[in-house]
Design goal:
Length: 781
């Protein structure tokens, strides 16, 4: 273990010099290991495994830089028993072998790198040797060249000064020659139409002629040039006034006139006047396309024509004006802005007229593309003429069209809803007219709901084009905020749902108005539709809208709960009105049957009246109809003899008291008093109680209204003995069938009991029919 730890030979001892080859070998290995660690970017702790927090100067640290083998061995001999020393030796041998294996692996893995590095160093030695030889030769050649250059400069010094003087004289002579030839050059340029070249010649000579005009020869040249320049100015003005050439040629004429010293204010006015003529021609062309006689092009072609013609021309005018009359300052800029504002306003008016013709179309794709091109075209003039406000005006037009499209789609959704209601009316009336079965209420409800939802999705997809990323105006604040929140969500979706609820509630008007002609089945269908909207559709549609239109506006919006509450209230009103309408239909049959019969002289009853059978049939039909759209509901526990209870009630002690021999016309006050006392202790029946969203509640409300009407009609009539018995038979028949439709059969018992009791009170000879006979008649009926 000592040999493995310290590494000295067999003859070495504690006093041997550490400079020996055996002592240097571990140090070399440690340095090589450190270099490898630096190459691979490993820290000392990562490779050596030294515990964190250990002292790096500890001489007993095997992994430290200051490790001393003798101190380490002494420490082991002092502190460790023999068994631990043997374990330490074994562990150290294992670590040495592992380190040797790692070193060998590193050498093998990096063998190619070592070979490549060796070859590179060898080549660098050869290349640097050649480079040193070439640098020596270059230095020698540069010294020779410097010597020759100095000798040539010394030889040509005198000649160089003479050549410089002669070159100056030659340049002066050429300038004088140009001045003397200037009139003829100007004349030739004017004749050839090279006005730009003539102005450049004039500009080059103007300062010299002004400086030396006191000399006769230069004065003559100046006079000739002024005459020629005046003729040049006249021709340029004539060419500018004719206006036959395009805007670039006219801008060139103005630029040349300004270079010749013409007044800028006058040229500015003339330039804008000529530009106005060209742009007004473009506006007249656009206005002609809006005329009634020729077929107007589509809106995309119209905006392309306006963008390439008027807007392009306005950009050319603005850029040329700013280049030519930049020296005019704020006054000139304001004049240009007023010019662009006036003509731009006329152009915007034409565009709005054309866009107004698109309000009736249902497709937004072509309109949005046209608005996108219109907005893109006005970016350039908007940047050139910021003071004119063209870009802001264009954005306002786009926003106004977007609002109008939202209104158009809202009207379309309302029309689609009304169309669905018309289809439902026709489907409900068709079976009666054609004598065949039509679609059921559940199918009609599904068709209406899917049709409305598909129209909503189509409208959302159509208006979503205004916020597409590729559209130039979609990043405007209005389309990122107000359009999404107040326009689409509130104005279109919430507005339509509220409009649908209002339209549905309009069918709840009093009879004689719109509600009088509304089929009851339509009221039932609309109530279920609004209830479905409250439970699912409202939340789904608003969530879909919020996902498609990422709102970046903090404006308050209608909560989902508020809209659901409005839909539920509409459903409740419709269902309540349905109950009233159906109850009114049955009530009218019962009222007519009571009012048109002579109850004093009627014959002894042999069967149930037909109207009572019709009441049961209509109630059964209503039960089937409501069951198609609403759930059953909760009933109270029914007795096992519900069909028999009516008659047993009639023959109870209360009825026996009514029909007792003591009940004679001579004692009316006692009978009325008894009846009133019994009413005080009987349960009060709320005829128009709130209707719940289930079949039992609906049928209970209809039956309560019908029986209450029968009771009130009976109270207005006087009955003979057989009339009372007929009422007794009819009420028993109704009790046999109506109890199963209501939530609490006691309600039917109480109302029918009141009917028979009221008839008995209004009968001079109240002799009831035997219960067995009543049962036989009702069973036969």
């Amino acid at each position: 273990m000592a040999a493995a730890a310290a590494g000295p030979g067999p003859g070495s001892g504690p006093g041997d010099s550490p400079e020996g080859p055996e002592a240097e070998a571990p140090e070399r290995r440690r340095k090589a290991h450190g270099m490898l660690k630096l190459y691979y970017g490993l820290s000392e702790g990562e490779t050596a495994g030294r515990p964190p927090g250990s002292d790096p100067l500890d001489p007993t640290d095997l992994n430290g830089a200051h490790f001393d083998p003798e101190v380490y061995l002494d420490k082991l001999r002092r502190e460790c028993p023999l068994a631990q020393l043997m374990d330490s030796e074994t562990d150290m041998v294992r670590q040495i072998r592992a380190l040797d294996s790692d070193m060998q692996t590193l050498v093998y893995e990096n063998y190619n790198k070592f070979i490549s590095a060796t070859d590179t160093i060898r080549k660098m030695k050869n290349d640097f040797r050649k480079m040193e030889d070439e640098m020596d030769r270059l230095a020698t050649n540069m010294a020779v060249i410097t010597d020759f250059s100095a000798r040539i400069s010394a030889t040509l010094q005198d000649r160089h000064e003479r050549i410089t003087k002669l070159a100056g004289v030659h340049a002066l002579l050429r300038k004088l020659q140009f001045l003397f030839e200037l009139p003829s050059r100007l004349t030739k340029c004017v004749e050839l139409g090279a006005y730009g070249q003539a102005v450049r010649y004039q500009g080059r000579a103007r300062a010299v002629l002004q400086q030396y005009q006191h000399l006769p020869s230069f004065r003559a040249i100046q006079d000739d040039c002024q005459v020629i320049t005046a003729r040049l100015v006249q021709q340029l003005r004539q060419r500018f006034r004719e206006g036959g050439s395009g805007a670039p040629e006219q801008a060139e004429c103005v630029e040349l006139l300004l270079a010749l010293g013409e007044p800028a204010e006058e040229l500015c006015d003339e330039f804008l006047a000529h530009a106005r003529g060209r742009l007004e021609a473009e506006l007249r062309s656009l206005e002609a396309e809006l005329g009634p006689s020729p077929p107007a092009p589509d809106v995309l072609e119209f905006t392309d024509h306006g963008g390439s013609g008027f807007v392009g021309g306005l950009c050319q005018v603005a850029s040329s004006y700013q280049e030519l009359f930049a020296a005019q300052g704020p006054a000139g800029a304001e004049k240009l802005a007023a010019f662009a504002r006036e003509l731009g306003g006329r152009y915007f008016a034409l565009v709005e007229r054309r866009l107004a013709q698109e309000q009736g179309s249902g497709d937004n794709s072509l309109l949005v593309r046209a608005l996108d091109r219109f907005h893109r075209r006005l970016r350039a003039p908007g940047a050139l003429l910021a003071a004119a406000g063209l870009a802001e005006a264009a954005t306002e037009i786009v926003e106004r069209v977007a609002r109008e499209r939202l209104g158009h789609h809202l009207q379309g959704l309302r029309a689609a809803f009304l169309g669905c209601l018309t289809d439902v009316r026709q489907a409900l009336a068709a079976p009666r007219l054609a004598g065949k079965e039509g679609p059921g209420l559940a199918e009609l409800l599904a068709n209406v709901a899917s049709s409305i939802l598909s129209h909503i999705k189509a409208s959302l997809a159509a208006v979503h084009l205004f916020t597409a990323k590729e559209v130039s105006f979609s990043n405007k604040p209005y389309f990122r905020g107000e359009f999404c929140s107040q326009g689409v969500r509130e104005g279109l979706i919430v507005g339509f749902i509220r409009s649908m609820c209002q339209t549905a509630q309009s069918f709840c008007d009093s009879p004689g108005e719109k509600g009088g002609a509304t089929p009851p089945a339509l009221l039932l269908l609309l109530s279920r539709l609004c209830l479905d909207y409250e439970t699912a559709t409202v939340s789904y549609v608003l969530t879909l809208t919020d996902e498609q239109f990422l709102v970046q506006d903090q404006s308050p919006v209608t909560p989902v709960s508020t809209l659901c509450a409005e839909a539920r209230e509409t459903a409740r009103r419709l269902l309540t009105h349905y109950v009233k309408v159906q109850g009114l239909v049955i009530s009218q049959m019962l009222r007519k049957s009571v009012e048109t019969r002579d109850w004093l002289s009627t014959l002894e009853p042999r069967n149930v009246r037909a109207v009572m059978k019709r009441v049961v049939e209509d109630t059964t039909a209503i039960d089937v109809q409501v069951g198609l759209l609403y759930e059953e509901g909760v009933r109270k526990a029914q007795s096992s003899d519900s069909s028999k209870r009516t008659f047993s009630v009639y023959s109870s002690s209360r009825q026996q008291g009514r029909y007792a021999p003591s009940y004679t016309p001579s004692a009316p006050m006692d009978t009325n008093l008894l009846s009133n006392i019994q009413k005080l202790f009987s349960e009060r029946i709320d005829v128009f109680s709130p209707v719940e969203f289930n079949k039992v509640s609906v049928l209970t409300g209809i039956i309560k209204i019908s029986l209450k009407t029968l009771l009130e009609c009976v109270r207005l009539r006087t009955f003979g003995r057989f009339g009372l018995q007929q009422v007794q038979v009819d009420c028993h028949f109704l009790q046999l069938y109506l109890w199963r439709f209501v939530a609490d059969e006691e309600l039917v018992h109480l109302l029918l009991d009141e009917v028979v009791a009221s008839a008995a009170l209004r009968c001079p000879d109240p002799v009831p029919m035997e219960p067995s006979v009543v049962e036989v008649i009702c069973e036969r009926g």
